[in-house]
Every structure is written in C-alpha cells, then in structure tokens.
Design brief:
Elements: E1 7-11, E2 15-20, E3 26-31, E4 52-53, E5 64-67, E6 70-73, E7 86-91, E8 94-100, H1 103-106, E9 113-122, E10 125-134, E11 140-142, E12 145-146, E13 149-151, E14 163-167, E15 174-178, E16 184-190, E17 198-200, E18 211-214, E19 219-224, E20 230-234, E21 240-244, E22 253-259, E23 270-271, E24 279-281, E25 286-296
Parallel strand pairs: 5-23
Antiparallel strand pairs: 1-2, 2-3, 4-12, 5-6, 7-8, 8-9, 9-10, 10-25, 11-24, 13-22, 14-17, 14-19, 15-16, 15-18, 18-21, 19-20, 20-25, 21-22
Length: 297
C-alpha cells in the first residue's frame, strides 16, 4: 500500500520500533532478545497492525454522520489510519509525525486540524502522544484512540489460551452490548471478570466482535504464567478500553484498544454536535493525550 514503503525506526538498548508513514502506524516492536510483540498482519485474519483512530471511533450508523447540517460518509475508525503522515522530527529514540487537513479530508470532515503523533522510547516503554490542534473557526468534534495488535502467544511453546489480560487494580467494568451490525445496541451490562481483575483469553470471547468496556482500570497487562514476556498498555486519560481479534476465528493476536469515544448506537443517526461521547475542541485550542506500551522480556 502507498506509504507503508516509507518506514522509520527508533531504538534503544531494549527495543527497536518501526513506524510507517501511512497512518503513522506502528509496524513492529522487537525486543533485544528478538521477540516481536506486534501482530504482523497475516491476511488470513487481519491485514493491519496498530491503526491510529481519528476523527471517529468504530462504525457509524449507515456509515455516515451529520455536521453543520450536512451528511458525510466516513468509514470505520475514521481516515487517519489510511492517510499519509509527514515526519516532523526523527531522532534515535523519538519520532514525531503529522497529518494536516487537506482537500481530501475536508471532503469527508469539514474542519481544519493538525493531528500529531509522537513516539518516544523510554527504557522498555514506548510512549505515544496524540495531539489535535483546531485550526478552524468552529468547534471541532472528534473521537480518538489506539488499536495496537499484539502477538499471542509471544513466545514458542505457549498457546493463546495460556494468556490472560490482567488489570492493574480490581475493578467492576461494564460492557457496551453490540448489535448484529457491530454497532452499539444502546445497552450496557456488568462484565464480570475473574477476581475483579483478570480476563483469561479464549478465542470465543470475540465471537460477537469487540469487547468494549467502561469503568475499567486504566492499565492492563497481557501475560502468561511461567514466562517473563508481557505487554502492559497504560491509558490514564482514555475513557474506554476495547479488546478484539477477528471474530469467530482462532486468530493468534489480541488488540488492546484505548479509546476516548465510541461507535454509533445502531439506528440512531450520528449527529456529531449532539454526540456526548465525542471530544469537543474550541477554535484555536489544542488537545493532548498520552498512552504507552511496556514490553517486558
């Protein structure tokens, strides 16, 4: 695909990270011991790796939304993940990339913006900064989030079902129930987890698509007993967390997705000015959100 041929690397003594110009997508995290943490896009299951989500999370009702009284079509997870980013700064352990509004973005999202993604390596942790600047003279409503996919298992000799997702503290999350069209149904239910902290992995968890939670702890670790390799995703300022792999498959990966907004409710028109879950940025204002991936080996 266009843009993915342009790759940029940052590295330190712990990790080597590769990022594509297309979507500023994280393509690889390789540890010093050679372990690859990022899903490598086997087309049998899922051809992406770590999309960056902007300006809309998930699917929209009938694939469209209304803004300023006009209707626009917008695909799942917006357009940033299929847009070419330009490099602003590239240093040994730091990469900053930028997507600015264009005629192409204005045709589907009538706002002037700059979306910056900055990756910083600190020891065994990759920090991600999302920054959105409103260059328009109108309010900028948007959704934003991450979508990193991680290999499961991380090492030979382990199986998918050997792994678990462990929240950093006890919590009692609630799940957003989905419609047959993979939109929100409008209903929320308790999501019991083991010891109020653990989700044991099994493929059937994703038979109805993603698990989207609220009121969960803001850090979760993908781990297995008897092996030191693990991944911890920390998202202090994200309101939701989703877990996913290709539904009704035995896909050997899991996505851990920190989000600040949600998909549409099935049957309810997506009117951006009225969506309570969207972020709203005043003219001239800037929004920032940091989240991170820690890879232990």
């Amino acid at each position: 695909m266009k843009g993915r041929k342009a790759m940029y690397t940052i590295k330190n003594e712990f990790l080597t990270v590769t990022v594509a110009a297309l979507g500023a997508e994280l393509m690889s995290i390789v540890a010093a011991d050679g372990t690859e943490y990022i899903w490598q896009a086997d087309p049998k299951y899922w051809t992406d790796r770590c999309p960056n989500i902007f300006p809309s999370v998930g699917r929209l009702t009938e694939g469209k939304y209304r803004l300023d009284g006009n209707w626009y079509e917008l695909g799942c997870h917006g357009f940033a993940w299929r847009s070419e980013f330009e490099v602003v700064k590239h240093e040994p352990t730091y990469l900053e990339m930028r997507l600015m509004y264009s005629d192409a973005t204005l045709a589907v999202y009538p706002r002037k913006f700059v979306f910056t993604i900055a990756y910083t390596l600190r020891g065994d942790t990759l920090d991600t900064l999302y920054k959105v600047e409103n260059l328009d003279d109108k309010d900028l409503p948007f959704g934003i989030g991450g979508h990193p996919g991680f290999n499961v298992p991380l090492v030979p000799g382990k199986q998918f079902e050997d792994y678990q997702l462990r929240f950093s503290e006890k919590c009692q999350p609630e799940i957003f129930l989905l419609s047959p069209q993979y939109l929100l149904s409008g209903e929320v239910a308790p999501y019991p987890i083991q010891d109020d902290q653990i989700i044991p992995l099994r493929h059937s968890l994703f038979d109805i698509d993603a698990i989207v939670l609220r009121n969960a702890a803001r850090e979760v670790t993908l781990e297995t007993e008897g092996d030191s390799h693990s991944v911890t995703v920390t998202y202090p300022d994200m309101r939701y967390i989703a877990f996913w792999h290709a539904h009704q498959t035995d896909a050997p990966y899991v996505c851990v997705e920190p989000w600040c907004s949600l998909a549409s409710i099935d049957g309810v028109p997506a009117i951006f000015e009225e969506r309570p879950d969207l972020l709203h940025l005043a003219p001239g204002a800037t929004y920032e959100n940091n989240w991170s991936i820690r890879c232990k080996f």
